[in-house]
Amino acid sequence: MADVRRIPPSQRHILSGLLDPRSVSDALAAYYGLLHPVERVALFGFFPGNHVPSGFLALARTGMDLFRPLAVPFVGTLQAMTALLRVALEPNRPVLLHVPLEQRSWVEDVAELTDAKPIDLLRLDTARYRPVINVLVVETAAPGGWPRFEIRSGEDAVAAAGVNWIGTSYAEIYLEVAEVAMGRGFGRSVLSALASRLVADGKVPIYPVTEDDWPTVMEAEELGFRRTGDRRWMAQALRRDPGAA
After folding, report:
1. How many domains does the chain have?
2. Most buried residue, 6, 11, 35, 195, by CB count within 10 Å?
3. Average pLDDT, stretch 153-158?
4. Do 47 and 143 fall within a single domain?
5. 92 three-class SS
6. Phi and psi (nearest 5°) for 91?
7. Phi and psi, residue 150, nearest 5°
C-alpha cells in the first residue's frame, strides 16, 4: 500500500537513484533533496508499496524568503503529488512552491495557488559566453561563503549578482538591480563576474527568469545564456484545510 514517510537525514541518499545530477531539470530537486543543510530541510518520500521511494518533496528554509519555506516536489504521478502535499504541508500555512508547468493542475487539487509566475530556466552556454569587464564590480562576502558580486554607490549596492544554491554540477543565480542603475549595464557586469567565477569553479550557472521579463532575458542571452526548455510555476501555495466549513 502506498504511503508517505519522513526521510531522516541519514537516509537522504536513497533519493539519489531518482535524480540525474547532469540534468538541468533535476538540478533544483537534487540540491534540496541531497545537499541542502539537514537542519534546514524536511524530506518526505512517496513509497508505492515497497522500501524504495518513487518521488519526494523537500520543504526547505532558505534565505530567499524568511517567512515561507520553499516546497520542491519531485514526482511523476498525480497520486504521489497529492499524497506528499497532504502530508508535508500544514493547512493554511503558506509555502513558496516550485512545480513543473504541466503539474500545476495536480497541485490545485490540494492547494490554492496565488501570485503564480511562469519561470523559464536559462543555462550558460560556455561556448558562447562573452565576459564583460567592469572595474566597478567588487566581490563581497555572502552568507554561507557563496560568491556575490556588486557595484556600489556609497553605502548601497545598486547592482548585485549571487547564488541561491550550488549543487554538484549547477549553481542557481539571481540578479538584483536598483531602479537608479537601470539601463547602465551594471546588471550585465555583475552577472558576468559571477558567471566567470562559477565556471572557473567547475559549476554551470542556471538562471530562472519570469517569462515576460524580456529585458532580463535579452541581457542574459547577450552574455551567452540559452533557454533550457525547463519551464515551471513559482507560486504561493496554501493547502486547503479539509476540516474547514
Report:
1. 2
2. 195
3. 87
4. no
5. coil
6. -60, 135
7. -135, 155
Domain containing residue 192: 126-223
Q: Three cell numbers at 25?
A: 531539470
The answer to whether residues 105 and 140 belong to one domain is no
pLDDT digits (tens, 9 = 90+) for 89-133: 998 899 999 999 999 999 998 999 999 999 999 999 999 998 999
What Rg value do the Cα atoms of the chain yield, rounded? 19
CATH number at residue 59: 3.40.630.30
Average pLDDT, the chain: 92
- Confidence at residue 103, expressed as pLDDT on a 0 to 100 scale: 96
Q: Are 80 and 54 in contact (CB under 8 A)?
A: yes
**pTM check: above 0.85:** yes
Does residue 190 share a domain with residue 98?
no
Residues 218, 145 share a domain: yes
The 10 Å Cβ neighbour count of residue 123 is 20
Cell of residue 85, nine digits: 502535499
In sequence order, what are the beta bridge partners of 123?
A: 206, 226
Q: Which of 88, 175, 184 is nearest to 136 (CA)?
A: 184
For residue 100, count other CB atoms closer than 10 A to its CB: 15
Label residue 150 left, alpha or beta by phi (over 0 means left) and psi (-120 to 50 means alpha). Answer: beta
CA pair distance 58, 43, nearest whole angstrom: 5
Q: Where does the pLDDT of residue 61 fall: very low under 50, low under 70, confident under 90, or very high at 90 and above?
A: very high
